[in-house]
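Researcher: Structure for this, please.
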Amino acid sequence: MFGCLVAGRLVQAAPQQVAEDKFVFDLPEYENINHVVVFMLGTIPFPDGMGGSVYFCYPDQSGMAVWQLLGFVTNEKPSAIFKISGLKSGKGSQHPFGAMNLPQTPTVAQIGISVELLENLAQQTPVANAAVSSVDSFTEFTQKMLDNFYNFASSFAVTQAQMTPNPSEAFIPANVVLKW
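Model: Predicted structure, token format:
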């Protein structure tokens, strides 16, 4: 039903089912991981009105499990990228994995997925710095494209003294593009 991807590693497509509605993926050597992608495989959708809360669990200095809510996946939002590099030192949050005895070793973290009602998902507050970017990809693309355009156009800049008259070409002052 779920998959987990860490850059430079094989895709994990078989989570360990620890309860009827709870699944975990082990993340060995989690100290070297910056981002995690959690996605639905597309083989089994969530039942109507259900989705999955995604949690990150790592052992603190005393070996106790610290769980932090990252976000969620649903049938309408079947994948998500989470930044976990800044979460390795922080406070845990309320989670549904509390009563379970999940093995913790100092170098292994876990991604937990809890199947819950969509209305419960909407009321949960993920850890603030788990989101990869608050700017949508179209806005980010547009900003980078315009920066690139300005840099490209500026590379052809000449002074008025260097200009040769050519009635078939139009010249646009660079400051006009910059003002726009």
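Researcher: Any notable elements?
Model: The chain has two domains: 2-123, 137-179. The two ends are 48 Å apart (CA to CA).
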